[in-house]
Design brief:
243 residues, alpha/beta, seven-stranded parallel beta sheet, five-stranded mixed beta sheet
Length: 243
């Protein structure tokens, strides 16, 4: 059996013994039914991996001892921040999961004029927690040892107005530039993906005011979740670590 990878939210070091968190305990103790003496691989977001051995496993608690550690850097040289206008149901979850696998560093859910999702208060807080858990699970699966941040929801204009030194990219069907024409020395990119109905004319004009570069992906109209993953892949091929 492949050694399971488990995220632990607190700093780890060799020779310490820890109790796994509730979600990890449920997965290891109840789902996988692992027992004392079996191996785990842990990571704590520090870009290290930790070899661990289960010392005690019950349905309520799993204790493990950290045996060894090593740096395991699988991060792309491209610092990529995805601004995704929220899509309905599983589409947003799919986008978050796959964008993490493709190397995105930050994901910000956005509200726009044509956004079909309206979440507030407790429902929104629970959804953000769920999205962050999806990002963690994607790291456990794909081997990343840093956890991308799922930020709180922002309005489209507030996100576009932020200036963190990144090159800003917006997809537009009438753009004259493509990802293949971007300068190869770019190391930090903000990628804006609109809603299923697209950005309004006013919103597109607004992105231009905040120095977004319009990019054309190709001749076909893609669904919002397809657009995000296609653009991320193309950026990683051009500027990151896919080839």
């Amino acid at each position: 059996m492949r050694i399971p990878r488990i995220y632990h939210p607190e700093p780890l070091k060799t020779n310490m013994t820890i109790s796994l968190g509730d979600d990890a305990t449920n997965h290891v103790g109840r789902v996988l039914r692992m027992t004392a003496g079996q191996k785990l691989e842990l990571f704590d977001g520090s870009n290290q991996t930790f070899d661990a051995e289960i010392t005690e496993a019950t349905k309520k608690n799993v204790y493990v001892r950290i045996v060894d550690s090593r740096i395991d850097d699988r991060e792309s040289p491209l610092d990529l921040h995805l601004g995704q206008v929220m899509s309905r149901g599983e589409k947003m979850e799919f986008t978050i999961q796959k964008s993490v696998e493709l190397g995105v560093n930050i994901i910000t859910p956005l509200l726009s004029e044509r956004c079909g999702v309206r979440l507030e208060g407790e429902r929104l807080a629970k959804k953000l927690q769920q999205w962050q858990k999806i990002a963690i699970a994607a790291c456990e699966q794909c081997g990343r040892n840093r956890i991308p941040e799922v930020r709180p929801v922002q309005t489209l204009e507030d996100w576009c107005a932020e200036d963190d030194g990144a090159f800003k990219v917006n997809l537009h069907p009438r753009a004259t530039e493509s990802i293949n024409t971007l300068p190869t020395e770019l190391k930090k990119v903000r990628l804006l993906i609109g809603p299923e109905g697209g950005l309004s004319a006013d919103e597109i004009a607004m992105t231009a005011n905040y120095q977004f570069t319009d990019i054309l992906l190709g001749p076909r109209v893609l669904r919002t979740e397809t657009t995000a993953l296609t653009a991320i892949t193309a950026l990683q091929v051009r500027l990151g670590d896919l080839g």
